[in-house]
Amino acid sequence: EAQVTQNPRYLITVTGKKLTVTCSQNMNHEYMSWYRQDPGLGLRQIYYSMNVEVTDKGDVPEGYKVSRKEKRNFPLILESPSPNQTSLYFCASSFLLSAEAFFGQGTRLTVV
Amino acid sequence: KNEVEQSPQNLTAQEGEFITINCSYSVGISALHWLQQHPGGGIVSLFMLSSGKKKHGRLIATINIQEKHSSLHITASHPRDSAVYICAVTAGAGSYQLTFGKGTKLSVIP
After folding, report:
1. How many CB atoms lie within 10 A of CB A28?
2. Which of A74, A87, A93 is nearest to A40 (CA)?
3. Contact A42/B43, CB-based, under 8 Å?
4. Interface residues of chain B, partner chain A, Cβ below 8 Å
């Protein structure tokens, strides 16, 4: 089954404790991206990757890091999380940017 | 940067009604996406359009490139259509960013 898998689904952490949210796709897609969703602001792009070892900033990259060492995986790293990073996060992939996007189930992160 | 506006923000309909959700954008695009987000939070892609019209079951999506406008229509609406519908655009050649509208919350009452 074609899918994008994010883990964990829910996470509560403390300020400053490094964390990683994993994202994996099984469709051999080249394009992967991370978004955060906040009430009143909608979805905003954090980082995206056009292929292995090729990443770039989206609209709200501050406080986040990504890596794309393998085509299927695109982890999101918060080196020192802060409460303003409390949000619902989505990973997505597509064959091309202008192609149907497949979204992960979402990760609800709370930073206290 | 592209600005994406959706209307209405909230919509309540009776079961069976014909529904239209609108999306306007400010800059030329290479593709427009319609997404559905159910109360549980998951996001599903409904359509990807670069021109014309697409139909899937009771859902129809149209786009007018000259007017920078797209519509999502739901015929014979049903309570299970209750969700947030989100429009997103990718800018023209050379852009790899996706810009989203704030969404339209649809509630269909039996």
Report:
1. 10
2. A87
3. no
4. 30-31, 33, 35, 41-45, 48, 50, 86, 88, 90, 95-103
pLDDT in tens, B75-97: 999 999 999 999 999 876 666 68
3-state secondary structure of A95: coil
Give the one of B45, B95, B100 whose C-beta lies nearest to A42's C-beta: B100
Which residue's entry shows tokens 């990807």? B48
| Residues A14-69 pLDDT 10s | 999 999 999 999 999 999 999 999 998 999 999 999 999 999 999 999 999 999 99
Query: 3-class DSSP state for residue A83?
Result: helix
Q: Do A98 and B86 touch (CB under 8 A)?
A: no
Are B16 and B109 in contact by the 8 Å Cβ rule? The answer is no
